[in-house]
Write a structure and sequence with these properties.
It is built from eleven helices and 14 strands. The protein is an alpha+beta fold. A hairpin with a 2-residue loop joins strand 4 and strand 5.
Length: about 350
């Protein structure tokens, strides 16, 4: 197995590929799936206590706790299976262990430049399921998460025309966000919504990944305007947002209680940034990269993508932006002849 670790702020992405004919975690994942998220890694205070608690609650570890010593420090870890398709959750504890991950050889100086866009941490992870209830129950009863937010909608769910439109065409989703109340770790979880279940983009994601799994990870930035401009200048492509979204934005923000935002709407329109909000005028800004297959014009790159998010007091998820992202993905799928 060959691996490379990419780091910006508190964001760490470990990219691995199989080498040779031996069995490895990335090799097992890639036998069944295109490129995607095979593990999510969580740092814990006491890995032994975590192991005992998860096993008592019905979690399924793939091994006992493994102990590795390196550079005078100790790294202890184990992984469990999950309802997230073939994505495992790994838990680790460091005791004076300075390296970000075992067996990696650090470069003398970081490669690729500084964290010029100010990426901070992973705000949340979103996953798609053909049926999400088993995952929700698992997160509640095994991980101890609580339900935080939910929404459901249909692409043709237009005021005054809802029933007729839904009966005729279109697809939709249900989404439930689960949160760990202590750490604030959040998972958004989606499933298709009737009537056109087979045409849903969640179904297409399932076909592309060849199973349920992680759709995207959201990375925080302190200034989404400059980050989006800089990423565009470097050739990064984002999900498109129609002009009608921005035509209706002032009215929608007023309806949800956001009377003022710091950013000019023409600038948001130019960059394709979404805005949503909640209580007491707080709001957030988001933009979504194209999925990897679209970004690199390579189907085997898979349907995973990143979100960029800046929160200005709002900790929710924004039903309006959920719909905008959903419809944007469907437009891209239709453009590619897949929907």
């Amino acid at each position: 197995m060959r691996s490379a670790l990419f780091e910006a702020g508190e964001v760490r992405v470990l990219v691995s590929e199989p080498t040779g004919t031996g069995t490895s975690e990335p090799g097992l994942f890639l036998r069944k799936h295109p490129d995607g998220v095979g593990q999510l890694i969580f740092e814990v205070e006491d890995v032994d206590a975590t192991f005992r608690l998860l096993e008592e609650r019905g979690g399924t570890p793939t091994s006992d706790v493994l102990t590795l010593k390196e550079g005078g420090g100790t790294f202890r870890t184990f992984a469990i299976t999950t309802p997230f398709g073939d994505t495992e959750f790994r838990f680790l504890e460091r005791r004076d262990f300075k390296a970000p991950y075992p067996y990696l050889v650090p470069h003398a100086t970081p490669r690729g430049g500084s964290n010029r866009f100010g990426f901070g941490h992973v705000d949340h992870v979103t996953s798609n399921f053909l049926t999400m209830k088993p995952a929700l129950l698992w997160m509640e009863h095994v991980l101890g998460f609580e339900e935080f937010w939910e929404v459901q909608f249909h692409t043709s769910d237009v005021a005054g025309e809802r029933k007729a439109a839904m009966a005729a065409h279109g697809s939709g989703l249900r989404s439930v966000v689960m949160r760990d109340p202590r750490s604030g770790v959040k998972f958004a979880n989606n499933e298709p919504w009737r009537p056109d279940f087979q045409a849903s983009q969640i179904q297409l994601f399932h076909e592309d990944l060849r199973g349920d799994g992680v759709q995207h990870a959201a990375l925080t930035v302190p200034d989404i305007l400059s980050a989006t401009r800089g990423l565009r200048d470097r050739g990064v492509e984002f999900m498109p947002t129609p002009g009608s979204y921005y035509d209706m934005l002032p009215e929608r923000l007023g309806r949800i209680g956001v009377e003022r935002i710091d950013e000019a709407i023409p600038v948001l329109r130019e960059l394709g940034i979404l805005v949503d909000g909640g209580a007491r005028g707080s709001y957030m800004l988001q933009i979504f990269l194209k999925d990897s297959a679209g970004l690199y014009r390579e189907p085997d790159a898979g349907p995973f993508f990143f979100e960029i998010i800046q929160r200005k007091g709002d900790e929710g998820f924004g039903a309006g932006n959920f719909r905008a992202l959903f419809e944007s993905i469907e437009r891209e799928q239709r453009k590619d002849g897949r929907a």
